[in-house]
TrEMBL record:
<dbReference type="GO" id="GO:0015074">
    <property type="term" value="P:DNA integration"/>
</dbReference>
<dbReference type="GO" id="GO:0006313">
    <property type="term" value="P:DNA transposition"/>
</dbReference>
<dbReference type="Pfam" id="PF13358">
    <property type="entry name" value="DDE_3"/>
</dbReference>
<dbReference type="InterPro" id="IPR036397">
    <property type="entry name" value="RNaseH_sf"/>
</dbReference>
<dbReference type="InterPro" id="IPR036388">
    <property type="entry name" value="WH-like_DNA-bd_sf"/>
</dbReference>
<feature type="domain" description="Tc1-like transposase DDE">
    <location>
        <begin position="150"/>
        <end position="295"/>
    </location>
</feature>
<feature type="domain" description="Transposase Tc1-like">
    <location>
        <begin position="72"/>
        <end position="141"/>
    </location>
</feature>
<dbReference type="InterPro" id="IPR002492">
    <property type="entry name" value="Transposase_Tc1-like"/>
</dbReference>
<dbReference type="InterPro" id="IPR009057">
    <property type="entry name" value="Homeodomain-like_sf"/>
</dbReference>
<dbReference type="InterPro" id="IPR052338">
    <property type="entry name" value="Transposase_5"/>
</dbReference>
<dbReference type="InterPro" id="IPR038717">
    <property type="entry name" value="Tc1-like_DDE_dom"/>
</dbReference>
<dbReference type="Pfam" id="PF01498">
    <property type="entry name" value="HTH_Tnp_Tc3_2"/>
</dbReference>
<dbReference type="GO" id="GO:0003677">
    <property type="term" value="F:DNA binding"/>
</dbReference>
<protein>
    <recommendedName>
        <fullName>Paired domain-containing protein</fullName>
    </recommendedName>
</protein>
Length: 347
């Protein structure tokens, strides 16, 4: 628990004056907005010592003033990327005696400003935020059953060796090149698999392996042989197709093809705001699939594809229903953020 701030000599003097005017200790506490115990202790100590000054105490005094603490906090809030060393250097340029970086970090921590790795998100222009906000408002009253009529689609890449972080190991002397201490890596695309997938109506659809670079012709083939058949099978006619604004998705070839299907009553196309991967629940599905695959430790590119197909078929309907059930909350979060990004862990 944080230590309470000590009463100033001015506050103690005010307590004494109010007490002499006949106010009760509870009335004094209410007027000065301090605790009853603080008033009681201050009067008792003044009666004993005959003084309302702070007691002399041992220990090192605080090396920064309240104004300097405020400067550290405000500077960090104005530029969130400033490091402790940079803030210390800026503060020390106006001081005779320098303060350490550790002191600055403690002041930041006292102010509730903690260092964290910045999350990477697509850049949102004002126009992007307006479109996200409009989309959220248009769909905020949709029920869970409404969201189940959407066929969610996307592409994702999976790697044989998933972790890109540094790995720490313990070695004996001269064991730097022992096989157990090495992190394997592969060249270019030799260790990954690109896939297209979809889900809707509480069930997963096809998982299609993309070989090479996916272009508009290849994507049109996916729509014809996988997306539309899956939508009709999982949801039924006039299902709602969701896709992002990738150039191949919005190509003239694919637009014309989907336009024909829409005219035939086979599907409807959901208007999707740009720069909005956080709104698509299939992103969470990819993360879950990646965790499942990682537990099975695929050893090669071909083995990775086998494991992906196996894990894809093991995804339970309950999990998929949870993804669609959270969509009303997602809409509310986007509206609360005025079209900006929201904390996905709280949705």
């Amino acid at each position: 628990m944080a230590r309470n701030k000590e009463l100033s000599s001015e506050t103690r003097q005010s307590i004494l004056v109010l007490r002499n005017e006949g106010n009760s200790m509870r009335e004094i506490a209410k007027k000065l907005k301090i605790s009853f115990n603080a008033v009681c202790y201050s009067l008792h100590r003044t009666a004993q010592t005959g003084s309302n000054q702070n007691r002399m105490r041992s220990g090192r005094p605080r090396c920064t003033t309240e104004q300097e603490d405020k400067y550290i906090k405000v500077s960090s809030l104005r530029n969130r990327c400033l490091t402790g060393a940079q803030l210390a250097a800026s503060l020390n340029s106006t001081r005779k005696t320098p303060v350490s970086m550790s002191t600055v970090k403690r002041r930041l921590q006292d102010a509730g400003l903690l260092g964290r790795v910045a999350k990477k998100k697509p850049y949102l222009r004002l126009a992007n935020k307006k479109k996200r906000l409009r989309w959220a408002k248009e769909h905020r009253h949709w029920t869970e059953e409404d969201w189940k009529k959407v066929l969610w689609t996307d592409e994702s890449k999976f790697e044989v060796f998933r972790s890109q972080r540094r790995t720490f190991v313990r070695l004996r002397p001269n064991e730097k090149m022992v096989e157990e201490s090495l992190t394997p890596s592969v060249k270019n695309d030799e260790g990954n698999v690109m896939v297209w997938g979809c889900f809707g109506g509480g069930e997963v659809g096809d998982l299609y392996r993309v070989n090479g670079t996916l272009k508009k012709d290849g994507y049109q083939s996916i729509l014809q042989h996988h997306a539309i058949p899956c939508g009709q099978r999982l949801i039924g006619d006039n299902f709602l197709l969701q896709q992002d604004n990738d150039p191949k998705h919005s190509s003239k070839l694919c637009k014309n093809y989907l336009g024909e299907k829409q005219s035939g009553g086979i599907l409807s196309i959901m208007e999707w705001p740009a720069q909005s991967p956080d709104l698509n629940p299939i992103k969470l599905l990819w993360e879950e699939l990646d965790r499942m695959v990682g537990k099975k430790c695929p050893s090669s590119q071909s083995n990775l594809w086998e494991v992906l197909q196996e894990s894809w078929g093991e995804i339970p309907s309950d999990y998929l229903n949870k993804l669609t059930a959270r969509m009303p909350t997602v809409c509310k979060a986007v509206i609360a953020a005025n079209g900006g990004f929201f904390d996905e862990s709280k949705v």
